[in-house]
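Tip: read the tokens left to right.
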């Protein structure tokens, strides 16, 4: 999209085919519409794992092909995940408005609610990472950089390598962290919105989603990171960290995000969220 600023400098009179990857961004990013309005083309093909209901480019997307996640599991394109939930301690007063739906969730509010029980929550996250995959090949998604940095330090004291991977991480370190993650087993990443889209880490075996989000597409992109296949990969686990108040679930769940029934079966394998981890 950086080329949109130089759109008038293109020497081509027309294009036969334009391909837009991650085309769900066309719903909100006007640069796509501006680019196509200034180009002649015969066909525009959009590719995405999270298609929006509308598009600024097309008005309405013409779906030509769709593969559901359940079909991808059956056909071996994606791994079938083992699903878990872990209830964290949040300061309910600090997020009362978010829980009742009277205001949108803000990451700063979530951080404040999380920090009220930091020691307990970090201990829970550490224990579940250890239980699920021995603190190996695991990525934990946090709502803020402060929490990611603190959890990285928490793990370091315990002799476990957990890199804080955020927008403040320098490019050279990012490259090194990703190489270490791919080449070694004893690595975890504490991530904030840097490993949710446009990144391919197929050796990732476990993710722990410790950040609430109302954005279903973001949730799907996060969950999709661990579903990639990889030679020799046998483990694929998703732990959804939630906080509850009454009957309100403070997080999307994997199955509801993908519009699956409460209990579904793929080739005899049961997928449900009744496997709550109690530590």
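Filled-in amino acids:
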């Amino acid at each position: 999209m950086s080329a949109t600023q130089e759109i008038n400098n293109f020497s081509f009179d027309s294009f036969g085919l334009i391909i837009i990857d991650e085309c769900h961004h066309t719903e909100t990013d006007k640069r796509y519409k501006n680019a196509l309005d200034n180009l002649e083309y015969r066909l525009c093909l959009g590719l995405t794992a999270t298609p929006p209901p509308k598009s600024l480019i097309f008005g309405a997307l013409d779906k030509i092909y769709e593969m559901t996640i359940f079909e991808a599991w059956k056909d071996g394109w994606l791994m079938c995940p083992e699903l878990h939930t872990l209830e964290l301690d949040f300061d309910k007063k600090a997020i009362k408005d978010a829980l009742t739906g009277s205001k949108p969730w803000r990451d700063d509010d979530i951080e404040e609610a999380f920090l009220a029980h930091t020691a307990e929550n970090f201990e829970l996250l550490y224990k579940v990472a250890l239980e699920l995959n021995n603190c190996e090949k695991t990525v934990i998604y946090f709502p803020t950089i402060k929490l990611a940095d603190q959890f990285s330090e928490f793990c370091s004291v315990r002799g476990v390598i957990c890199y804080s991977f955020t927008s403040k991480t320098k490019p050279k370190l990012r490259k090194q962290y990703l190489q270490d993650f791919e080449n070694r087993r004893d690595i975890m990443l504490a991530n904030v919105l840097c490993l949710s889209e446009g990144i391919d880490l197929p050796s990732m075996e476990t993710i722990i989603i410790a950040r609430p989000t109302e954005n279903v597409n973001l949730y799907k992109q996060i969950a999709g990171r661990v579903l990639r296949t990889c030679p020799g990969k046998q483990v694929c686990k998703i732990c959804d960290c939630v906080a509850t108040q009454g009957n309100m679930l403070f997080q999307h769940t994997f199955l509801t995000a993908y519009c699956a029934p409460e209990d579904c079966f793929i080739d005899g394998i049961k997928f449900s969220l009744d496997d709550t981890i109690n530590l």
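The radius of gyration is 20 Å. The first helix runs from residue 30 to 37.
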